[in-house]
């Protein structure tokens, strides 16, 4: 059971043996309609003949209807192709298992006049029985239509029995009682269908061929078909009698085999575009007591009148809760192609957006990596340049040091020559730019002043300055005691020296400490080492020596006096 399809725009087609009817319907409203006649033998009983050329005729119909490529199409199948039968379903078969049950039983317990049919059904729940109305059609015939629509780039979404479409059209135009039994007699140029409707449910569909298509000359005028019969009237009278006889057979079958509660047919509705309809009505009224209702030539379908021949297309466009669809489920086009397309488009957009985002992120990562590589390269270049500069500066410093060495030791030796006998250098620092700072200890201020004057008069030194004098008292006599202690952690003996003033005599004499700063001329110091500087500067020890009576050698000063070289040890406080 297919769901109703009425939203959007659909193209409806009805193929008969003499013509093809088409209508463009949007939301249940017919927008355009057209019909194209077919040469005799193009269709026979709903079957497309392979040797017949339908392409040009069908193309002209599509042109009249202005059908765009890819439109959704619904087909009304000729009643001669469709078999309708009521079947009882076992109680053990669930409702959602009916289709599977029919697949298993078709060809076995359910015998049809053709193999591998396409089928659909409606469920009938009545009198405590579970029954269905089965509709089936040969798959070869439906495949012909599917191939035709595919070639024309139309999406065939449904194929419904033409008799059912006729009933839906009549039900939409005329009031049909819920508990009535109605017989719809749809008579066309080449066949007629007898459709029995009971309680608004189809109970019987009987389609019988009448005239051959080659006895008619068909002409299209203003979207209507005009027929001209080519044979004699005797053939017409015989065919009309056979049609009335078939009507009587169907009526008797319903009365004695199909009707419930001994029901009778209450209404007979005559539909179709049969050319001899007036003669058929006269014969019917002469043979039957039933009330026969004829559909008018023009059907009032808002907002326009529609020719009676388009009744099946009107029925296809009418909304219904459930509809029959004889297309195979695998070949049915999407019921909501626009929604499906939008979903696919959205899904594709999401995938595309995700891929674009991933690509953008990847590009950002590549750009970031490239920037980092550039930064690393710049840092490496800067580091290499800085290293080169540091090496150059270091080399320059080394070269400078090699070119202008700092003669710290010769300078110290030269300064110590000016110290008095009991004078000492306590601190000595030779700094940058050959700047010397030192602290010297003297016993008297006269000795300190003499040392200061000697430095001022020496050409080796410049900028000699006495920055400060401090006084410090010293004990002349002190007891020195040396002892040992044992380290508890290692067990080693540690010597300890303790100095304490003498208790017998405690005399304190001051010592004077001068702070001096001066600058050194290194070249002059080096010359002084070779005595090439000022000759008044005291000479190195050993330059002038004299022998003492004891055979000792004593240095002489500039005045010829002997300078004592004895070293007096003074204990530090």
Could you walk me through the main structural features you see in this protein, from its secondary elements to its overall organization?
The chain has about 575 residues and is of the alpha+beta class. The chain contains eleven helices and 29 strands. It has helices at about 55-65, 100-105, 140-150, 160-175, 235-260, 275-285, 310-315, 335-405, 410-415, 445-455, 520-530; strands spanning about 1-5, 10-15, 20-25, 30-35, 45, 45-50, 70-75, 85-90, 115-125, 130-140, 155-160, 180-185, 190-200, 200-210, 215-220, 225-230, 265-270, 290-295, 300, 305, 320-325, 425-430, 435-440, 460-475, 480-485, 495-500, 510-520, 545, 555. The strands form ten sheets. A five-stranded mixed β-sheet has the order 4-3-2-7-11, with helices on both faces. A hairpin with a 3-residue loop joins strand 12 (about 180-185) and strand 13 (about 190-200). Helix 4 crosses helix 7 (about 310-315). The longest helix is centred in the middle third of the chain and has 67 residues, at about 335-405. The chain is rod-shaped, with a radius of gyration of 65 Å. The model is unreliable at about 330-335 and about 540-573 (pLDDT under 50).
Which descriptors would you attach to this protein?
573 residues, alpha+beta
Please give the structural blueprint.
Elements: E1 2-3, E2 9-15, E3 19-26, E4 29-37, E5 43-44, E6 47-48, H1 55-65, E7 72-77, E8 83-88, H2 98-105, E9 117-126, E10 129-138, H3 139-151, E11 155-161, H4 162-173, E12 181-187, E13 191-198, E14 201-209, E15 216-221, E16 224-229, H5 233-258, E17 267-271, H6 277-287, E18 292-294, E19 298-301, E20 304-307, H7 311-317, E21 322-323, H8 337-403, H9 408-416, E22 424-430, E23 435-442, H10 445-457, E24 461-475, E25 478-486, E26 493-501, E27 508-520, H11 522-529, E28 545-547, E29 553-555
Parallel strand pairs: 2-7, 7-11, 12-17, 17-18
Antiparallel strand pairs: 1-21, 2-3, 3-4, 5-6, 8-10, 9-10, 12-13, 13-14, 15-16, 19-20, 22-23, 23-27, 24-27, 25-26, 28-29
Helix pairs in contact: 4-7
């Amino acid at each position: 059971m297919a769901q109703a399809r009425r939203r959007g725009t659909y193209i409806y087609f009805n193929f008969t043996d003499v013509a093809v009817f088409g209508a463009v319907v949007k939301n249940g409203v017919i927008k355009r309609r057209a019909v194209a006649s077919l040469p005799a033998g193009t269709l026979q009983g709903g079957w497309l003949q392979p040797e017949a050329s339908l392409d040009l005729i069908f193309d002209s119909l599509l042109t009249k209807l202005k059908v765009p490529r890819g439109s959704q199409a619904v087909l009304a199948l000729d009643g001669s192709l469709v078999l309708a039968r009521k079947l009882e379903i076992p109680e053990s078969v669930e409702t959602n298992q009916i289709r599977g049950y029919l697949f298993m039983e078709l060809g076995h317990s359910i015998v049809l006049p053709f193999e591998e049919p396409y089928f659909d059904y409606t469920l009938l729940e009545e009198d405590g029985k579970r029954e269905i109305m089965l509709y089936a059609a040969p798959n070869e015939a439906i495949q012909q239509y599917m191939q035709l629509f595919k070639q024309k780039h139309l999406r065939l979404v449904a194929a419904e029995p033409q008799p059912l479409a006729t009933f839906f059209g009549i039900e939409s135009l005329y009031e049909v009682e819920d508990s009535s039994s109605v017989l719809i007699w749809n008579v066309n140029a080449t066949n007629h269908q007898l459709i029995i409707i009971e309680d608004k449910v189809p109970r019987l569909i009987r389609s019988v061929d009448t005239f051959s298509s080659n006895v008619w000359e068909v002409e299209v005028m203003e979207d209507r078909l005009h027929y001209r019969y080519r044979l004699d009237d005797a053939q017409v009278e015989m065919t009309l009698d056979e049609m009335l006889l078939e009507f009587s057979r169907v009526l008797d079958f319903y009365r004695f085999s199909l009707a419930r509660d001994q029901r009778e047919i209450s209404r007979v509705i005559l539909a179709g575009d049969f050319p001899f309809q007036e003669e058929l009505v006269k014969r019917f009224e002469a043979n039957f007591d039933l009330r026969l209702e004829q559909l008018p030539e023009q059907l009032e379908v808002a907002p326009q009148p529609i020719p009676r021949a388009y009744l099946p297309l009107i029925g296809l466009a009418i909304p219904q809760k459930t509809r029959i669809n004889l297309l195979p489920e695998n070949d049915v086009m999407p019921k909501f192609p626009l929604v499906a397309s939008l979903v696919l488009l959205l899904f594709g957009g999401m995938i595309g957006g995700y891929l674009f985002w991933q690509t953008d992120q990847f590009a950002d990562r590549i750009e970031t990596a490239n920037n980092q590589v550039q930064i690393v390269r710049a840092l490496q270049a800067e580091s290499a340049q800085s290293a080169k500069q540091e090496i150059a500066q270091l080399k320059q410093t080394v070269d400078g040091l090699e070119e202008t060495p700092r003669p710290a030791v010769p300078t110290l030796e030269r300064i110590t020559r000016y110290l008095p006998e009991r004078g000492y250098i306590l601190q000595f620092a030779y700094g940058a730019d050959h700047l010397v700072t030192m602290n010297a200890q003297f016993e008297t201020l006269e000795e300190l002043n003499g040392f200061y004057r000697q430095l001022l008069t020496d050409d080796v030194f410049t900028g000699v300055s006495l920055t400060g004098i401090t006084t410090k008292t010293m004990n002349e006599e002190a007891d020195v005691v040396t002892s040992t202690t044992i380290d508890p952690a290692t067990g080693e003996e540690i010597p300890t020296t303790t100095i304490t003033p003498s208790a017998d005599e405690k005399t304190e004499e001051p010592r004077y400490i001068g702070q001096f700063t001066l600058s050194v001329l290194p070249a002059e110091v080096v010359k002084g080492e070779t005595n090439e500087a000022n000759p008044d500067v005291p000479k190195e020890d050993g330059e002038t020596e004299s022998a003492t009576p004891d055979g000792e050698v004593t240095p002489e000063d500039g005045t010829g006096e002997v300078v004592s070289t004895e070293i007096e040890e003074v204990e530090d406080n």
